[in-house]
Structure formats: C-alpha cells, structure tokens
Amino acid sequence: MQRVILFIAVISSFITPFDGSAVNIALPAIGQEFSLDAVTLSWITTSYLLSIAILLVPFGKLADMKGRKRMFLIGISTFSAASVLLAFSADAGMLIGLRLLQGAGCAMIFGTSLAILSAAYHPRERGKVLGITIAAVYLGLSLGPFLGGIMTERLGWRSIFLVNAPLGILCIVFAIWKLPLEWRDEPGQQFDIAGSLLWAVSLIATIYGLSILPSLAGAALIGTGIVLLVVFGAFELRSPSPVLNMQLFLGNRVFAFSNFAALINYSATYAVTFLLSLYLQVAKDFTAEYAGLILVAQPAMQALFSPLAGKLSDNIDPGLVASGGMAVTVAGLFLLTFLDAGSSIPFILGCLLFLGVGFGFFSSPNTNAILGSVDRRSYGVASGMVGTMRLLGQMLSMGLAMTIFATSIGREEIGEWNIPEFIESIHIAFLLFFALCVVGLAFSLVRGKKRGAENAGTLDS
After folding, report:
1. Which residue among 1, 104, 211, 259 sits deepest, i.e. has the most Cβ atoms within 10 Å of its Cβ?
2. pLDDT in tens, 67-118
3. Mean pLDDT to the nearest integer, 141-164
4. Strand, coil or helix: 458
C-alpha cells in the first residue's frame, strides 16, 4: 500500500505545478484569442494562486477531521473536472471562474497528499519519500514551460488543460482501488468557520495588495491584510477548535522557524527565473526557446538532488541539511549580484546550478522538519502550511521584483532603449534577495532539532 500512496503522491505533485507553469507559457495565446488586457490576463494566474492560498489551511484541517483520503479524492476529482471544463472556456470570465475552482481542488490535494504520505511511512523513511515527491514537483515545473510551449503551438492552449484529466483519473482509480483505509486524526471536532473566513479575507487583502504594488492601494491592502492576520492569530488562540493551532507557532520552535525559513526562501528565489528570463531575452537577445533551455538548469538540479537530500534528512537532523541547502542558495544569489550585460552563459549556468542544488537540499529536508515537528493529528494543517508559505513567498518575491521595476524603470515596456536601467533593477533585486536569504539562513540555523512527535492517530477502514 505504501508504494501506491507514493505513486499517487508523485502523480498529483507533478500535475499541479506542471499545469501552473504550462499555463503561464500559454497566456499570450489566451490573451490573443479573448482580446484581454494585461491586468485581466494576470488574473488567470492570480485567481488560481489566491484560491489555493485561501483554502489550503481550512481544507487541511477538514482533512484531519473528516478523512484525508476522502478530501484527496474530492480534490483530485474537482481539479480534473475543472481542467476539462477549462478547455471549453467561452470567455475570460468563465476561464477565471474555473481557475478558482481548479485552485480549490489543488488546495485539497496539497492539504492531504503530504499528510497521507507522512502518516503511511515510518518517520525514518519520511524524508526519502518527501524528497521523491518534491522532485516530482520540480519535474512538473521543468517540463511545464517546455511541453506547454509545444502543446500551445501545435495543439492550441486548451490542450494544456485536457492533459490533466487522464492523470487525475489515474490517481482517482488507484486511490479507490488500492487504498481501503482512511486517515483521520481529529474526528468529532467543530470546524472553525469564523477563523477560516478571517484567514481568507486577510490573505486576499495581502496577496491582492502584492499584485498591485507599488500603488498606494496595494500598500494599504497589504497593511490591512497583516493587521487581519494578527487578529486571526489572537482569535485562534481563544478558539476551542481552531482552524490553525497557533500553539504550533508559539510553542513549537522547529515548526515556526522552519515555516519562516520556507517563506523567506521562496521570497528570495521565486522571481529569479522571471528576472533571468527577461535578462536573457532582452539584454542578450536570445529567443524564448533558447532562454528556456538555459533556465531548465535550476529545476533540473532541484529534481536531481531533492530525493538525495530527503533521504539524507532521515539520518541527519533535517534542519541541518536544510540550512546547508540555504547556505548554497545564499552563495548562488551572491554570485547573481555581479550579473551585468556582458555576463557569460557559463557564469549564468553556474549561478543556476548553485541555486538548484541549494534549493534541492533545502526544500525536502525543511518539509521533513515541519511534518516531523507535529503530532499525527496535525499533519493536514502542517501540510497546508507548507503550501501556504510557498504561495505567500512566491507572491512576495514577484511583488518585490515589480516594485523595483516600477521604481527604476516606470510603467514603460522593457526593451533595448532602457537596458542600463533594467540591469540596475535586477542588480538591486538580487542584492535584496541575497539579504533576504541571509535572514532565512539565520531562521534555519536557530530552529533547533525536530521533535519526535509521532503520536498515533485514528485509522478507519
């Protein structure tokens, strides 16, 4: 049964990032077909991310209460059905609405797959299987732009959504056929509706604010979101059945600092591919295909080293392995601060290899540290927090990059006429990301050792 669970986790971990990265490549074709402006086009991606971020923690809690297998099946079914419907979208409104639904399904998958995997495997094997699963994530991210571009060009952008359906159905069949058991560790609790709504509103304000920086409205929304997050934390501390147990942050140093390290790591690294993609196509005048081939170096290294790092974290304290990975990432970002218009391709590839190895050694051990620091009954919430930190970090990273561009270049198109200003912008961005990652390394180093909390949960047939 363990191998079936791992197979399901690998397939579901592949299709969700593959879909996201492939759709990003298809956005110009979608915009051309529906005559969309840039703001509306951006919501095809933003709506998906928002839906996942809002629902990850509540769905993780529901999975702990009602059953993780049940929630996973609902999630993969929703994701697959929405993908098929997306292929027949008639207009932008339908497309964005279905992306919200697809994101909801993705949140159920993210909030349960890692939790099921952690419950099914012995703690001494968890890092290894988490590493394999996270490698599948990076494989999806690597193949998404490449295969998505080919499919968009030869079969049309709608084919990208249709490819999710057979893989989703495969997961559904194996889950129903081969998984007779149910994982449920917090049965009988009341679901915290008020806390979930407060969490949703705070994240909507924060993430939407990041998407419209550097406007004053964006800063105001971010401020509002932060205040509401503080209110949410205070509310959850008094709730008898909180959607997010704040004691995990206040009384569990490993959990808190590992999550903060993940947030900062994603904030410091996610926009790197975006910035280098622009650099290679604008400053170097490379084609999109050639630029894409160069940029594959980073996720390829991540996919290669994640299983090794995960297995290593089963035998060595995962916080120590993750800190080593963060240190390599710091080195890669430091090298990128020297990037200029004349930088060579071997230098750029070297930086990407550093970042790929660093993040490969950080991600799966850090996830192992987070899941290893909580009791079995909190696996769903912990799994949801892993995904939430990733999404918030990604949005923050892009928000910082956009703010720097708006300040240095303004709202004009980037081209050969403003390459000096563009190079200066990415230099500032890499300096900021380097400093952020140093802070993240500090969080990672002081987290302490993981707790041996592997309490038995409720296993229903």
Report:
1. 259
2. 888 888 999 999 999 999 999 999 989 999 999 999 999 989 877 877 777 7
3. 83
4. strand
Q: Where are the domains of the chain?
A: 1-180, 192-242, 252-452
1-180 shares its CATH topology with 252-452? yes
Vertex 325 angle, CA 253 and 143, to 5°: 115
Tens of pLDDT, residues 403-434:
787 777 765 656 677 788 889 989 999 999 99
User: 198-249, pLDDT tens digit by residue?
Assistant: 989 998 888 778 767 777 888 899 899 999 999 999 998 888 888 887 887 8
Q: What is the mean pLDDT of residues 147-165?
A: 86
Question: At CB < 8 A and 24+ separation, what contacts does 425-430 make?
Answer: 426/275, 426/278, 426/279, 426/339, 427/337, 427/339, 427/340, 428/404, 429/271, 429/275, 429/400, 429/401, 429/404, 430/272, 430/275, 430/333, 430/336, 430/337, 430/339
What 3-state class would DSSP assign to 182?
strand
Contact 339, 427 (CB under 8 A): yes
Q: Which CATH superfamily is domain 1-180 in?
A: MFS general substrate transporter like domains (1.20.1250.20)
Closest by CA to 371, choosing from 440, 451, 446, is 451
> Using CA atoms, how far apart are residues 15 and 12, in angstroms rounded to an integer?
5
Residue with tokens 């998906």: 48
Q: Name every residue whose Cβ is closer than 8 Å to that of residue 248 and which is 6 or more positions away in sequence.
A: 255, 256, 374, 378, 381, 382
Q: What separation in angstroms does the CA of 20 have from each of 24, 62, 105, 141, 200? A: 6, 25, 13, 8, 21
Neighbours of 103 (CB within 10 A): 24
Residue 7, pLDDT above cutoff 80:
yes
The superfamily CATH assigns to domain 252-452 is MFS general substrate transporter like domains (1.20.1250.20)
